[in-house]
Amino acid sequence: MKITAFSELTIDGRMTLTRGGSSKALFDFYGDEMRTWFHQQRAAHDAIMVGAGTVRADDPELTVRHVKGPSPLRVIPTTDGNIPADCHLLNDGLPTLFAVPAALPDDVRQALMRHDGIEVMDCGKAHVDLAELKAGLARRGIATLMVEGGSTLLRGLLGGNLVDRIVIKHIPVIAGCTSAPTYLEGSDIALSRWHIIDWRLIGGVGVAMYERST
After folding, report:
1. pTM above 0.70, yes or no
2. Cα 52 to the chain's mean position, in Å?
3. Helical H runs in 66-164?
4. 45 in helix, strand or coil?
5. What is the pLDDT along the chain (214 residues), one digit of tens a residue?
6. How far is CA 105 from the centre of its chain?
7. In whole angstroms, what is the distance from residue 30 CA to residue 26 CA?
8. CB–CB of 194/212 below 8 Å?
9. DSSP state of 115
10. Which strands make up the sheet holding 2-10, listed edge to edge?
């Protein structure tokens, strides 16, 4: 299975405009051309993943809306099952997979599964094991996974050498907030080398694509 990590970064290297702010604020700087391209990327992937923190902060839909095409399976790793009961993912009835540890309490597990379209898959014992999650998705026939997660999820994936391609959307603004999160904030993962395979300008947003150097 191939994992591609998509992220937005401001000129000063921030993933949001403020500490604790939603990354959706950066979408305001997208033009229609970028929105179309981005949703084409969603439609081209079998599954899409964000972390539970992104669900709590942004309440994303994670669907294909600006182009015609299928919406990918939504995948959310969560160690404690702390998902807002009123969020889109639990209430729109679309297929959504929550990856949880085997130790997740039954009442929390059942609270997720009582919603339409929800499936729960155990990955790890006390914490979500992302390598197990990748293997489990591959067994389900998922060939391509698009990740739109924040720093925590990206650290886990890159630290585990699970990412095949990185896509950075360079948003042409300066956040000006030194406390706003950076890419892989607080990371202590090992050095890895990447090479650029594509660069393009889409609606005023520079998009760089990288693959791991061998």
Report:
1. yes
2. 10
3. 88-91, 106-113, 130-139, 151-159
4. coil
5. 999 999 999 999 999 999 888 888 888 888 899 999 999 999 999 999 999 999 998 999 999 999 999 999 999 999 999 999 999 999 999 999 999 999 999 999 999 999 999 999 999 999 999 999 999 999 999 999 999 978 889 999 999 999 999 999 999 999 999 999 899 887 788 889 999 999 999 999 999 999 998 7
6. 25
7. 7
8. yes
9. S
10. 118-122, 96-100, 73-77, 47-49, 144-147, 2-10, 165-171, 205-212, 194-202
Write b or e for each residue in 123-145: b if 16 or more Cβ atoms lie within 10 A of its Cβ, otherwise e. bbeeebbbebbbebbeeeebebb
State how far the alpha carbon of 24 is from the alpha carbons of 55, 61, 92, 95, 206, in Å.
12, 12, 20, 22, 18
In this structure, are residues 60 and 160 in contact, taking their beta carbons and an 8 Å threshold? no
Report the pLDDT value the prediction gives residue 46, as an integer from 0 to 100. Answer: 98
Contact 119, 98 (CB under 8 A): yes
39 and 67 Cβ atoms separated by less than 8 Å: yes
Decide: helix, strand or coil at residue 99. strand
Main-chain phi, psi angles of 94, to 5 degrees: -85, 155
Place of tokens 């599954």: 47
Nearest to 133 by CA among 92, 102, 107: 102
**204 touches 212 (CB < 8 A):** no
Whole-number pLDDT of residue 151: 87
Tell me how far the alpha carbon of residue 54 is from its chain's centroid.
8
- Dihedral pair phi/psi, residue 198, rounded to 5°: -160, 145
